[in-house]
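Internal ticket - ligand job 377, pyridoxal-5'-phosphate:
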Amino acid sequence: MSIQVLKPKFHIEECLAQVRECLEKGWTGSGFKTAEFEQKWKEYTGHANACFLNSNTSGLHLAVNILKRKYGWKDGDEIISTPITFISSNHAIMYENMLPRFADIDEYLCLDPKEVEKNIGERTRAVMFVGYGGRVGQLEKILQICKEHKLALILDAAHMSGTRVNGVFPGTWAGVDVTVYSYQAVKNLPTGDSGMICFADADLDAECRKVSWMGINKDTYSRTSREGTYKWNYGVDYLGYKYNGNAIMAGIALAQLPYLDEENAYRRKLCAIYDEVFSQNRNIHIIPAPHRDECAFHIYEIAVPNREALLSELAKNDIYGGVHYRDNTEFSMYTYAQGSCPKAHEITKHIITMPLHMYLSETDVHRIAEIVDHFCK
Ligand SMILES: *Cc1c(COP(=O)(O)O)cnc(C)c1O
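stdout (structure tokens):
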């Protein structure tokens, strides 16, 4: 059997029971299960607010859209961001006619606080921090910098479902303006496509509920209409988007959530096997993780001298690695930033994502690790 780099595990009977409930009730849109999952997610994470969306990408766009309006940011203003991320983090900035200002990464492949500080200028308004592979990186230091320079902080927590630091979800730390999670098909809490946006501020959460639903304000009809009357009498306050999540996805999320912590613990166990084998090999560089015992480890990375050759060697054994991520400044859209992040530019040629998911046994991981270790001798 071939081994994929990422493979979601669905608790199928529980998922089907949730979906069945939606279908029997005749309610697959927003509301019902989405409200229930928002509540469960708030209880699980400690976030004060949570708004369920159709993706993390939509959420990152809404984060920039809503903060831009609140603080009066102008077109062309900058948000400091990382070149080592899925392109969503940076496109979200561009959607609002703002500019990603790329800062280099640290040993965790997260934004380096020193580089963030160097890149702060007249037009800097915020920092977009990506918790790479579930890592919290040096988020605490970056929060301090944001406080000193009066910058907003957006946390792209696509990889961070379940990551804690001393029992606390980093997205709930004071100073994080908004945290966005992903429940995309291969993330730690997979649905099909969906996400959650958690604003620290309740007013922004309320605004987000309108903007993510075409800008519609339901207050008018909730005031005027009786139960059961068709809700047509609404206002429209914003040029909103169709970004709301639906009950089917929320139902699947509800079924999956009870397993998240034990599955993340299993991920850590598999990572420890890789660590143990690779730490003996001078040619293999393990990407470290701070607070390792509480990291969600969405992906497990190493850096090797010849990444392409290793990918081929693994493929010969019917094992498929991946690359997370190409330095975003290499994309034609972002060439204006080429050369600004030498560390990211170097490491992007050497990183390889090892298979990591619930369908791997410890024996599988030992076997993969031995192949890699042997090849890199
Ligand atoms: C997956 C991912 C996203 C996008 O999430 P979607 O829910 O697919 O929109 C954004 N940022 C990072 C770092 C990701 O890995």
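Auto-summary: Residues 113 and 138 are 7 Å apart (CA to CA). The first strand starts at residue 51 and ends at 53.
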